[in-house]
Amino acid sequence: MLFSNVIGQDFIKNHLTTSVDAGRIAHAQLFIGLSGTGVLPMAIAYAQYILCNNAQGENEGGSQACNLKFEHLSHPDLHFAFPVATTPEVKSHPVSNNFMREWRSFITENPYGDLFKWHQHLGIEKKQGQIGVDEASEINKALALKAYEGGYKVMIIWAVDKMNTAGSNKLLKLLEEPPAKTLFILISENEDSIIDTIKSRCQVLHFPRLSEPQIADALITKHKTPDAEAHKIAHQAQGDYQQAMHLLHHDGDDIQFEKWFVTWVRTAFQAKGKKEAVLGLMEWSEIIAKSGRETQKNFLAYCVQFFRQALLKNYKANDLVFMETETGFDLSKFAPFVHNNNIFPIVEAIQEASYHIERNGNAKIIMTDLSIKLTRFLHRKS
Asked: CB neighbours (10 Å) of residue 304?
């Protein structure tokens, strides 16, 4: 993975290469940012720069054989850990080493992919992947060995916020007393979900969202997207290249999410004066409950975004409104029902529901409770 393959983030590229050239490599680094900002490609490019002794701010000038190994992510001193779950092939104690073939194909196909895309790639989208204590033991074993090529060993832990408590405690011991010439690169979208004792031992780098010109240029050069379409997608993607890919290929879940959302708000709005609509909300909740927990969390995040877009539309901040509906739902007619007196309780209720789903609560009960709350919130006066 070359730095030139990573979209934007020039300041971070320069910071990382400069620190390596100066011999100042922090043994534990935490990359915080959306998958669509390039955290994983940057981590791999950074590891390649170190392991292959590359120079001049780019991955060139070092060992040709080493750089070739990175093209296939097969360098023996590069290690990965990531969330996994049981599958028909791996029925118990799943660890990352069981899924390296799938992981390499996932990065090759979509290096900006997020956790939900990874779960889909594995066929476990109805489960919640995690990094457990078995994985932490595997990390210990891998790093206890000497470096194959005599230099650094690099361990990239992707979605480290999905590491459970037992795994975190075991990793913490390793971070406190790391083996010589070992680099940990921890990657997360959610900084708040990482325990403070791990964060305190890491050098933290925050990845900003990409700019519209950067995304548009990548769409034009990498995917031959027409200029007008590329700039439109870049505006809608809101700094997230993964979202731009969804919009370009029309392969995201937004159309299904929009249908669910429209049914939900229409039924919730009717429920105040139409008691049978409550039964409709319960039926809707049952449909959502049948989808996987990652799908439910993604849908709730989509709902928050939809309500925020309606609020911006209501207060005439049209330059910030990027959402375009696919089902004929008129955002401008819905917008007056989202205002300063209900946006905060709506968002808070949705985030609370997502929190309980994350912790394996009963999805049907959670979504029904959220729906009943929404019926009250939508009828509040501004």
From this structure: 15
Tokens of 353: 């529901």
Helix, strand, coil shares, percent, the chain, to 5: 60, 10, 35
Quick check: 69 and 75 in contact, CB under 8 A?
A: yes
pLDDT at residue number 302: 87
Ranges of the chain with pLDDT below 50: none
Residue 274: the pLDDT is: 73
Burial of 161 (0-12, 13-18, 19+ CB in 10 A): buried
pLDDT digits (tens, 9 = 90+) for 224-257: 888 888 888 888 788 889 888 887 876 556 778 8
- Convert 61-85 to b/e letters by CB count within 10 Å (16 or more is b): ebeeebbebbeebebebbbbbbbbb
Neighbouring C-beta atoms of residue 41, cutoff 10 Å: 21
CB-based burial label for 313 (10 Å; 0-12, 13-18, 19+)? buried
pLDDT at residue 62, rounded to an integer: 59
Return the pLDDT at 273. Answer: 67
148, two tokens: 């194959």
pTM above 0.70, yes or no: yes
Task: Show Cβ contacts of residue 358 under 8 Å, excluding neighbours closer than 6 positions.
Answer: 128, 293, 297
Q: What pLDDT was estimated at residue 60? A: 61
Residues in the chain: 382
Of the candidates 192, 370, 341, the residue with the CA atom closest to the CA atom of residue 265 = 370
Distance CA 125, CA 35 (A): 17
Given a contact cutoff of 8 angstroms between Cβ atoms, the answer to whether 117 and 34 are in contact is no
Q: Which amino acid is at 260?
A: W
